[in-house]
Amino acid sequence: MTEKERSAATPSITWRVRVRYAETDAMGLLHHANYFVYFEEARTECLRQFGFSYRELEERGAYLVVAQAACTYRAPARYDEVLLIHTTVERVTAARIEHSYRVVREADGALLAEAKTTLACVDKNGEVRPIPEILRQAPLWPSPPPEGAPP
Q1: Pick the catalytic residue: 25, 80, 108, 123?
Q2: How, if at all, do strands 12-18 and 111-122 pair?
Q3: Cβ count within 10 A of residue 70
Q4: Where are the beta strands (DSSP E) in 19-134?
Q5: Reduced to 3 states, what is the DSSP secondary structure of residue 66?
Q6: 30-43 in b/e burial notation, b at 16+ Cβ within 10 A?
Q7: Domain residue spans of the chain
Q8: What pLDDT, in 10s, does the model give residues 45-92?
Q9: Residue 81 and residue 63: Cα distance in Å, rounded?
Q10: 3-state DSSP call for residue 36?
Q11: What is the CATH number of domain 3-136?
Q12: pTM for the complete prediction?
Protein backbone atom coordinates (compact mmCIF):
# COMPACT_ATOMS: atom_id res chain seq x y z
CA MET A 1 0.00 0.00 0.00
CA THR A 2 1.39 3.41 -0.91
CA GLU A 3 1.64 6.25 1.65
CA LYS A 4 -1.20 8.05 -0.19
CA GLU A 5 -3.43 4.95 -0.06
CA ARG A 6 -2.56 4.42 3.62
CA SER A 7 -3.43 8.05 4.43
CA ALA A 8 -6.76 7.73 2.65
CA ALA A 9 -7.56 4.48 4.49
CA THR A 10 -6.39 5.60 7.93
CA PRO A 11 -8.78 7.69 9.99
CA SER A 12 -7.36 11.01 11.04
CA ILE A 13 -8.51 14.45 12.05
CA THR A 14 -6.98 17.84 12.60
CA TRP A 15 -7.86 19.57 15.88
CA ARG A 16 -7.25 23.31 16.09
CA VAL A 17 -6.38 24.86 19.47
CA ARG A 18 -5.08 28.21 20.67
CA VAL A 19 -2.51 28.14 23.47
CA ARG A 20 -4.19 29.69 26.51
CA TYR A 21 -2.32 31.79 29.07
CA ALA A 22 -3.07 29.35 31.91
CA GLU A 23 -1.35 26.57 29.95
CA THR A 24 2.00 28.33 29.74
CA ASP A 25 5.00 28.53 32.03
CA ALA A 26 6.83 31.64 33.28
CA MET A 27 8.50 32.03 29.88
CA GLY A 28 5.15 32.09 28.04
CA LEU A 29 5.75 28.63 26.54
CA LEU A 30 3.19 25.84 26.46
CA HIS A 31 4.02 23.63 29.44
CA HIS A 32 5.09 20.17 28.30
CA ALA A 33 2.33 18.37 30.24
CA ASN A 34 -0.39 20.33 28.44
CA TYR A 35 0.46 18.69 25.14
CA PHE A 36 -1.11 15.54 26.58
CA VAL A 37 -4.30 17.47 27.37
CA TYR A 38 -4.39 18.53 23.70
CA PHE A 39 -3.84 14.93 22.60
CA GLU A 40 -6.80 13.82 24.70
CA GLU A 41 -9.01 16.55 23.24
CA ALA A 42 -7.98 15.56 19.72
CA ARG A 43 -8.55 11.83 20.42
CA THR A 44 -11.99 12.55 21.83
CA GLU A 45 -12.88 14.66 18.81
CA CYS A 46 -11.56 11.97 16.46
CA LEU A 47 -13.90 9.44 18.04
CA ARG A 48 -16.78 11.92 17.92
CA GLN A 49 -16.23 12.74 14.23
CA PHE A 50 -16.56 9.04 13.45
CA GLY A 51 -19.92 8.88 15.24
CA PHE A 52 -18.96 7.75 18.75
CA SER A 53 -18.38 9.27 22.15
CA TYR A 54 -16.53 8.20 25.25
CA ARG A 55 -19.79 8.58 27.17
CA GLU A 56 -21.46 5.95 24.97
CA LEU A 57 -18.57 3.56 25.44
CA GLU A 58 -18.66 4.04 29.21
CA GLU A 59 -22.41 3.38 29.21
CA ARG A 60 -21.55 0.03 27.57
CA GLY A 61 -19.07 -0.68 30.36
CA ALA A 62 -15.97 0.04 28.25
CA TYR A 63 -13.37 2.55 29.39
CA LEU A 64 -10.42 3.59 27.23
CA VAL A 65 -7.45 4.30 29.47
CA VAL A 66 -4.01 5.52 28.48
CA ALA A 67 -1.62 2.58 28.84
CA GLN A 68 1.35 4.23 27.18
CA ALA A 69 2.24 7.75 26.06
CA ALA A 70 5.36 9.28 24.55
CA CYS A 71 6.14 12.68 23.08
CA THR A 72 9.15 14.16 21.32
CA TYR A 73 9.28 17.94 21.54
CA ARG A 74 10.85 19.65 18.53
CA ALA A 75 10.20 23.37 19.12
CA PRO A 76 8.23 25.40 21.69
CA ALA A 77 4.68 26.63 21.34
CA ARG A 78 3.93 30.06 22.77
CA TYR A 79 1.00 31.78 24.37
CA ASP A 80 -1.76 32.73 21.88
CA GLU A 81 -0.35 30.68 18.99
CA VAL A 82 -2.80 28.51 17.08
CA LEU A 83 -1.75 24.87 16.85
CA LEU A 84 -3.00 22.07 14.66
CA ILE A 85 -3.04 18.65 16.28
CA HIS A 86 -3.04 16.04 13.49
CA THR A 87 -4.35 12.83 15.06
CA THR A 88 -4.31 9.43 13.35
CA VAL A 89 -5.60 6.03 14.42
CA GLU A 90 -2.57 3.87 13.64
CA ARG A 91 -3.53 0.42 14.89
CA VAL A 92 -6.39 -1.37 16.59
CA THR A 93 -6.34 -4.76 18.29
CA ALA A 94 -9.13 -6.50 20.14
CA ALA A 95 -8.50 -4.42 23.27
CA ARG A 96 -6.12 -1.56 22.26
CA ILE A 97 -6.13 1.53 20.07
CA GLU A 98 -2.91 3.29 19.05
CA HIS A 99 -2.86 6.93 17.96
CA SER A 100 -0.13 9.15 16.58
CA TYR A 101 -0.04 12.94 16.76
CA ARG A 102 1.79 15.72 14.97
CA VAL A 103 1.60 19.20 16.46
CA VAL A 104 2.27 22.03 14.02
CA ARG A 105 2.05 25.79 14.36
CA GLU A 106 -0.71 27.02 12.06
CA ALA A 107 1.07 30.27 11.13
CA ASP A 108 4.17 28.70 9.59
CA GLY A 109 3.60 24.92 9.58
CA ALA A 110 6.55 24.32 11.91
CA LEU A 111 6.57 20.86 13.50
CA LEU A 112 6.52 21.34 17.28
CA ALA A 113 5.96 17.83 18.60
CA GLU A 114 5.29 14.23 17.63
CA ALA A 115 3.63 11.73 19.94
CA LYS A 116 2.03 8.32 20.29
CA THR A 117 -0.47 6.90 22.74
CA THR A 118 -1.84 3.43 23.35
CA LEU A 119 -5.29 3.13 24.87
CA ALA A 120 -6.41 -0.07 26.57
CA CYS A 121 -10.06 -1.00 26.83
CA VAL A 122 -10.97 -1.98 30.39
CA ASP A 123 -14.13 -2.60 32.39
CA LYS A 124 -15.23 -0.63 35.45
CA ASN A 125 -12.88 -2.72 37.63
CA GLY A 126 -9.87 -1.98 35.41
CA GLU A 127 -9.74 -5.46 33.88
CA VAL A 128 -8.82 -5.63 30.19
CA ARG A 129 -11.84 -6.34 28.01
CA PRO A 130 -12.54 -6.36 24.27
CA ILE A 131 -13.43 -3.13 22.53
CA PRO A 132 -17.26 -3.11 22.13
CA GLU A 133 -18.45 -4.79 18.94
CA ILE A 134 -20.21 -1.65 17.68
CA LEU A 135 -16.90 0.21 17.77
CA ARG A 136 -14.80 -2.68 16.44
CA GLN A 137 -17.06 -2.98 13.40
CA ALA A 138 -17.02 0.75 12.62
CA PRO A 139 -15.48 1.63 9.23
CA LEU A 140 -12.86 3.86 10.82
CA TRP A 141 -10.04 1.49 11.68
CA PRO A 142 -6.94 0.93 9.56
CA SER A 143 -7.66 -2.81 9.75
CA PRO A 144 -10.54 -3.99 11.98
CA PRO A 145 -9.45 -6.68 14.44
CA PRO A 146 -10.91 -10.12 13.75
CA GLU A 147 -13.28 -11.68 16.23
CA GLY A 148 -11.34 -13.40 19.01
CA ALA A 149 -8.05 -11.66 18.16
CA PRO A 150 -5.67 -11.34 21.12
CA PRO A 151 -5.48 -7.99 22.91
Answers
A1: 25
A2: unpaired
A3: 9
A4: 63-73, 82-92, 96-105, 111-122
A5: strand
A6: beeebbeebbeebb
A7: 3-136
A8: 988 887 888 898 899 899 999 999 999 999 999 999 999 999 999 988
A9: 33
A10: helix
A11: 3.10.129.10
A12: 0.84
